[in-house]
Amino acid sequence: MTPARKIADVSPRAVETRKRVNLALQGGGAHGAFTWGVLDRILEDGRLEIAAISGTSAGAMNAVVLADGFNAGGADGARAKLEGFWHTMSDRSSNSPIKRAPIDVMMGYWSLDRSWGYHVMDAMTRMFSPYQLNPLNMNPLKEVLEECVDFTCVQNCTTIKLFISATNVETGRVKVFDSRLLTSDMVMASACLPHLFQAVIIDGVPYWDGGYMGNPSLFPFHTESDSADVIVVQINPIERKGVPRTPQEIQNRLNEISFNSSLLKELRAIDFVSRLIEEGKLDEARYRKERIHLIENQRALSPLGASSKLNAEWAFLTHLRDLGRETAQAWLDTHYEDIGARASVDLHAMFQGIGPQHQG
C-alpha cells in the first residue's frame, strides 16, 4: 500500500462557492489510473461540484465507482472507492503472465513490448476470436466491477448524472446509457474490445467498446446538465509525431485515431456553434455556448506506449495516479478562474492544426 496522501484544507467559503462542471472521461485501459488521479485531486480540492460525468471504457468505470462512493460518503467516499477499485484490479491481475520483462523492471520502463506473455496474447487474438479462445465468456473485470460497485446505489445517485457510451455492433451508432437503469453489463459493454471479449448483449442488442463512436460522448451534457463547463480528461494522444513502421506501431496508431475521431467531431461541432453565437448568427438565449476545458499530459503519457495499457501493476497504477493528481493541480492553478467564465481551450486553433491551445 502507498502512504496516505494529505487531505487538502478546503475552507467553508470555498465549498459554498463551488463551481458546477461536467466531466468527460476517455477510455484507455490501465491509463485510466491517470484519470483516477485527476478525479482524486478534484474531489480533494473541493472547489468544483460535479454535475454530470460522461465516460467510456475505463472512463465509464471511473465514473460509476465515483458515483457509488459519492452517493454513500461524499467526496471522501468517492476517493476511497476509486482507490479500492484500482487496488482490487491490480490484485486480481497479479498472477497474470502479462507482465513486464525483467530488463524493463530493472530499467524502470512501464511498457510490455518485451513481455513474452503480452506477445503470446497479441498473437492469439490475431488468430482466434474471443468466441474461440473464451467460449464460456469469463471476464474477471466484470467480477471486480460487481464486487466494488453497488449499482443500486449508482442508480439512486441524483447528485451526479452519468452517461455511459457503448457502440451498437449492428447499427454502428453510439448508445448512451444513463445512471437511472445502469447495470454492470452496460459498463462492460462500454469496455468491450472485440478482439478480447465477446460482444455484450443487452435487451437482445450486441455492443462493443464505446470508444469507437463516443470516447466519450459530449452531447448528453447539452440537454441533461445545467452546467456549460465541460472538462475533458484526455488519455489518448491526438497527435503523435513520426510515421509508424512496424505492424504493432501501425495498429496502435490506428486505434488512437479511431478512438479520438468521435470526440474530435463533437468538439468541432461545439466550436462551430460557439463561433455562430459569437458572430450573432445564433440566438444565445436559445443555444448554449459550451465552455471546453482540457486536462491532459501527453508529454508523459505518450512515451508509455499502447502495450502499457494492459499493465496493471500497482506501482504503475499509482505512478499514473500521482501523475494525474499533479496534472490536475497544475490545471486548477492555471485555469480554475476560467470555469464559469470562458473556455480554456482554443478549439479553433486545435482544428487549424496548431494543437490544443490553452487560453487565458
Could you explain how this protein is built, in words?
- The chain is of the alpha/beta class and 360 residues long.
- Helices cover 47% and strands 14% of the residues.
- It contains 14 helices and ten strands.
- Strands 1, 2, 3, 4, 5, 6, 7 and 8 form an eight-stranded mixed β-sheet that branches. A two-stranded antiparallel sheet has the order 9-10.
- Helix 2 crosses helix 3, helix 2 crosses helix 13 and helix 3 crosses helix 7.
- The longest helix is centred in the N-terminal third of the chain and has 35 residues.
Rg, rounded, reads 20 Å
Count of alpha and pi helical runs: 14
The unreliable regions are: 1-14
Q: Give me the strand/helix succession.
A: HEHEHHHHHHEEHEEHEHEHHEHE
Q: Give the percentage of residues in beta strands.
A: 5-15%
- What percentage of residues falls in helices of 4 or more residues? 40-55%
| Terminal-residue CA separation | 39 Å
Count of distinct strands: 10
* Biggest sheet overview: 8 strands, mixed
pLDDT averaged over residues: 91
Spatial shape = globular
Structural class: alpha/beta
Oligomer: single chain
Name some characteristics of this structure.
14 helices, alpha/beta, disordered N terminus, 360 residues, 8-stranded mixed sheet, single chain, two-stranded antiparallel ribbon, 10 strands, globular
Write a concise synopsis of the structure shown.
This protein is α/β, with parallel strands linked by helices and 360 residues long. The protein is built from 14 helices and ten strands.
